[in-house]
Amino acid sequence: MRIIFTVTNELNYDQRMIRICNTLSAAGHQVKLIGVKFGDSPSLEEKGYEQKRVKVFRKKGFGFYFEYNVKLFIFLLFQKADIFCCIDLDTMLPVYFISVLKNRKRVYDAHEYFSEQKEIITRRSVYRFWHFIEKRLVPKFKNGYTVSEGIAKEFKKKYGVDYAVIRNIPLLKPLTAKPSKEKTILYRGSVNEGRGFEYLIPAMKNVDALLSLFFITIFWVKMKNGNQFMIK
């Protein structure tokens, strides 16, 4: 099948989507991953599936989402696919309208409870907007999957959708480097509100290990190399 995924991320660093797209591509499907491109975005790394970036000029806020969604909708008008899959709510609108216009299947990848993120619920107008999108459109996405039983049950209760659970875990790879004698807990991902660092970091005082945080900063101008630091 021809499958199109839509994200608002930088494609080179989205490990979860790289894993999903590679898996589906290896299974024989034609996969295309669509993301954003800024003026300072690095060149795309070669993958085993097709990639496309939609250029936008705004980097954050409502202006970014509006510009990207409009351009994404126009781009999708000229794409052929059997399935359109939106990742989170922030690309759901164009995917919904395109799937209706083209009479194609649509899928919702709810890899987090988007409208209940701390940066969403603490801003009233922002919360109302995304909650409205979620309430109106999620029931129209009968096919979908999420990362935990808790989110799946909540969506079933609120919106009547029965989503599969696919855990967000890294690929199993053989260990090539010699393990260190020092115990280390590694966190890899975004560092923002709602990730529990205000509890995790103080708790490390009582854990006989190092906490290593490897993250790609949310600021695009610094995103090319990422940052790493360790907390004892």
Describe this structure in words.
The protein is an alpha/beta fold. The chain has two domains: 2-165, 3-Layer(aba) Sandwich (Rossmann fold), CATH 3.40.50; 184-231. The chain has seven helices and ten strands. The strands form two sheets. Strands 3-2-1-4-5-6-7 form a seven-stranded parallel β-sheet, with helices on both faces. A three-stranded mixed β-sheet has the order 8-9-10, with no helix packed on it. Helix 2 runs parallel beside helix 3 (92-102). The longest helix has 17 residues, at 61-77.
What are the defining features of this structure?
alpha/beta; 232 residues
How much beta, percentage-wise?
15-25%
**What CATH architecture label of the largest domain applies?**
3-Layer(aba) Sandwich
The structural domain count equals 2
**Basic shape:** globular
Q: Give the biggest sheet.
A: 7 strands, parallel
**Between the first and last Cα atoms, what is the distance in angstroms?**
48 Å
Order of helices and strands: EHEEHEHEHHEHEEHEE
The CATH superfamily of the largest domain is Glycogen Phosphorylase B
List the strand order in the largest sheet: 3-2-1-4-5-6-7
Low-pLDDT stretches are 216-232
Computed Rg: 19 Å
